Amino acid sequence: MKLGKLEMLLKGISLLAEKAVFLSVCFFIFSAPYSKLLSKRAFIFSVFFWFLFFVFQYKKSFAREMFLKTLLFKRFVFFLSACFISAIFSINPAHSFEVFFNRYFCFFLIFLIGDFLGRKKYAPLQIAVIFLLSGLFLGIGALNDYYYSHGERLVYSFGKGIFFSQYLTMYLPLSMVIMFFADGIKLRILGSLSFLLLYPCLVLNASRMAWLGSAFSVVFVFFFKQRKKFLILFLIILTILIYFFPVQDCNRFTIRPDTWGDRLDLWLAALNIFKDYPIFGSGPGTFEKFLYVYGPQHGYKEGAIHLHSHNTYLEILSDTGLMGFMSLIILLSGFFRLVFAVLNLKRDVTNVNFILGFTAGIISTLILASATSIIFIGFQDAAVFWLMMGIVMGMCSKYGKLPSIGGSCCRV
Question: DSSP class of residue 302?
Answer without folding.
Answer: T
